[in-house]
Amino acid sequence: MTPVATPFFFYLLSGLALLGGILVITRKNAVHSALALILTLLALAGLYLMLYAPFVAGVQIILYAGGIMVLFLFVIMLVSIEKSQREDQFNKQWIGGLVGAVALGALFVRVFVRSKALHDLTGMPMAQLPEQSNTQEIAVYLYGNYMLAFEIASLLLLVAIIGAVVMAKKRI
Amino acid sequence: MVPITTLHYLIVAAGLFVLGVVGVLTRRNVVIVLMSIELILNAVNLNLVAFSRLWGLHGQVFAIFVITDAAAEAAVGLGILIAFFRNKETVNVDEVDLLKW
């Protein structure tokens, strides 16, 4: 299915994503930051749908917006937010942050403007990937080419579960 | 109107990445620092998925691996945060100075 009004939805979704990002790093209340991050994640899921990646979009909504953000909200409720809200929200490193952001942004602009290889690549018309078989093809890659990485990812999750339990438990 | 190319997506991802870096460098609340790291990971994911439109589905597979890593990182990071909050009653990064002398 060819998408309709692509530029409109692109600018809408990317604007929402960037707005959510700005809200995440400026809000005083951590719960508001978490809700803004959910807005960013949902907008990015929409962008993935526009890029013919329905499986990644679904994983993004279910795992990120549904799983990881619930974990974040639980932890925000566990640690006291009233006390931390009355304190200073930004540390003394804002000069370092500014310099880092400007240097990084300048690097990105330099690469995007000057790199000829990137322009040759990104200028070419985008292929329309078949979205009906997207999940099937990802599964073939995941259990074929990336079999070892997949197994290592499962091991990583096991280690993360054990580590989280060990650290969050009062007495083992 | 200009047709949307891969470069547009890369610019959005760069903006999200810079926002995440600013959040990590300037915020004091550990929870919000972890959320900024999630922003950075999402920017990388957007890059990977945008490039997967040009080079086949490898980028999408890598995006799924990055999401797996983000889940593991969030679980361990928040576990550390709870353990730290139990000991020092604070969630500010600049008060994590037990090893400083």
Q: How is this fold's topology laid out?
A:
The complex is a heterodimer of chains A (172) and B (101).
Chain A: H1 6-26, H2 30-50, H3 54-78, H4 81-86, H5 94-114, H6 116-123, H7 134-143, H8 147-168
Helix pairs in contact in A: 1-2, 2-3
Chain B: H1 6-26, H2 30-55, H3 58-88
Q: How would you describe this structure to a colleague?
A:
The complex is a heterodimer of chains A (172) and B (101). With 172 residues, chain A is mainly α. Chain A folds into two domains: 1-85, NADH-ubiquinone/plastoquinone oxidoreductase chain 6, subunit NuoJ (Four Helix Bundle (Hemerythrin (Met), subunit A), Up-down Bundle), CATH 1.20.120.1200; 132-172. Chain A has eight helices and no strands. By secondary structure, chain B is mainly α. Chain B is 77% helix and 0% strand. In chain B, α1 (6-26) packs antiparallel against α2 and α2 (30-55) packs antiparallel against α3. The longest helix of chain B has 31 residues, at 58-88. The mean pLDDT of chain B is 88. At the A-B interface, α1, α2, α3, α5 and α6 of A face α1, α2 and α3 of B.
Output the radius of gyration of chain B.
Answer: 17 Å
Structural class of chain A: mainly alpha
**Overall pLDDT level of chain B:** 88
Count of individual domains of chain B: 1
Give, in order, the helices and strands of chain A. HHHHHHHH
CATH superfamily placement of the largest domain in chain A:
NADH-ubiquinone/plastoquinone oxidoreductase chain 6, subunit NuoJ
Q: What is the makeup of the main sheet of chain A?
A: none
Shape of chain B: elongated
| SSE pattern of chain B | HHH
- pLDDT < 50 stretches of chain A: none
Strand content of chain A: under 5%
Distance between the termini of chain B: 60 Å
How many helices of chain B? The count is 3
Extract low-pLDDT stretches of chain B. none
